[in-house]
Amino acid sequence: MNIPVMKKIVPFLRPGHDQYYIRKRVPARYAPVEPRQIVQVCLFTDSQDVARRKAPEVWNQMIEAWEAKLDGKDTEGDARLAAARNLAQRRGYRYLDAADVANLPLQDLLERIASIKDSRGRIDMAEADAALGLPSASAIKVSEAVDHFYKIAEERVIGKNDDQLRKHRNPRVKATEAFIEAVGDKNLADVTAEDMFEFRRVLTGRVKRGEIKASSANKDITHLLALWGPVAASKGFKLQFESKGLRLKEGADDDESRLPFSESWIRDKLLAPGALAGLNKDARLILRGMVNTGARPSEIAGLMPEDIKTDAEIPHIVIRPNENRTIKNAQSRREIPLVGVSLEAFKEAKGGFPRYAKNSASLSATVNKFLKENGLRETPEHSLYGLRHSLEDRLLRAGVDERIRMDILGHQIKRERYGEGGGLAFVRDQLLKVAL
Question: Residues 288-343: pLDDT tens digits?
Fold first, then answer.
């Protein structure tokens, strides 16, 4: 920004006046926002020393105000709104939306109206924007909210690799598209409670027709609320609706928990000699690694070589954030002892799982397709993730304490955690009770 350098300003007394003034030519840069070629401003003091101190300050304030006007000239949306707020601050009053300006005490309102005219009595639109709150904060469409969210909420995706970012973004895009199809691509600030309940009505119709489950509809609503709240706050406006009453009632058929494989199925089918021979090595080892660790497929796929400690006194893996992936939550950071077929699998994978390290979605698709094509699903609803729940069931039946089960699986426990949970040796002994 090329702001004109201020030259020495000499205050003067106007003939017949006892107040000092400054008189300066307006820099050519500000001609688009200042019609006067020369400005003459009263310093409201009869002291020459005070006038000399005030003159540079007053001139700088004028420069800043002109810059603020330039920022908003011939722009829309965010830039115009930012310029209006900046100019209002320079003028010494708080920026308010037009609706709030209209509710000001009469004297305050009249003062703002009087301030929007220039020296020739013409309305200065930049001054009107600032004083009367004319710029709209709604210059963002529903379709633009997703991209804006990821600009203002970067901390929510810090450390996520491309695959994780895609998984985070896709359901929000899906929910946005569903809303636009049902209601339209409105300005976000104009979305009303009526619009949201129309969206709910459309989702309910899809649930009745069996196209989606109520839980899926609720996820769309939840994603939109979590998306739009920060966006609205960053734009300086409030959403026109509340979330109360929007969620659909979920029934028993909405339970989306993955079915656990039975112990006999894992032992006699999945771990039978040659059963997984047609599966690529990384996928095969990850599947076997899940059997006795209960780790999420993405957690195992993202392990770095240094996190696979099969040569330690108590062999174990370390699940923590790394360059391949973030972790789901604080409870997901953990160490899991290795026993049985999982220990043997990790001994073959000391270099990690480069094929799926940053693309665990393709891992699940590959394994589930293989299981389906080779008759290795216990039921059509079973999937790779069922191995995680299988370990949880086996630990429960073996009487392993809830704290230990939650620590192994990386679940949040409802009571306070104290101590180290028994240490690796103790946890290994618990896993040996159910190891395959």
Answer: 999 999 999 989 999 999 999 999 999 999 998 887 777 666 778 899 999 999 99
Rounded CA-CA distance 205/299 in Å is: 37
Query: How does DSSP assign 143-190, residue by residue?
Result: HHHHHHHHHH-GGGSTT--HHHHHHHHHHHHHHHHHHHHHT-S-BGGG
Q: How far apart are CA 129 and CA 66, in angstroms?
A: 14
Residue 290 corresponds to which tokens in the numbers above?
A: 């899940």
Within a 13 Å sphere around the CA of 265, how many CA atoms are in the beta-carbon half? Answer: 17
β-bridge mates for residue 337, sequence order: 316
Question: What phi and psi values does residue 79 have, to the nearest 5 degrees?
Answer: -65, -45
Q: Is 18 exposed, middle or buried (0-12, 13-18, 19+ CB in 10 A)?
A: exposed
Q: What are phi and psi of 91, to 5 degrees?
A: -85, -10
pLDDT tens string 259-270: 899 999 999 999
Q: Strands 38-42 and 316-319, how do they pair?
A: unpaired
Three-class SS of residue 315?
A: coil
- The count of other CB atoms within 10 Å of the CB of residue 252 is 5
CA angle (59 as vertex; 57, 64 as ends), nearest 5: 95
Only one residue has tokens 């994780």, namely 164
Cα 118 from Cα 18, distance rounded (Å): 25
Residues near 348 by beta carbon (within 8 Å), at least 6 away in sequence: 281, 285
CA distance 178 to 352: 39
Q: How many CB atoms lie within 10 A of CB 427?
A: 23
Among all chains, which residue has been given the structure tokens 């032992």?
A: 267
**For 400-425, b where at least 16 C-beta lie within 10 A, e where not — what string?**
beeebbbbbbbeeeeeeeeeebeebe
74: left (phi over 0), alpha (psi -120 to 50) or beta: left
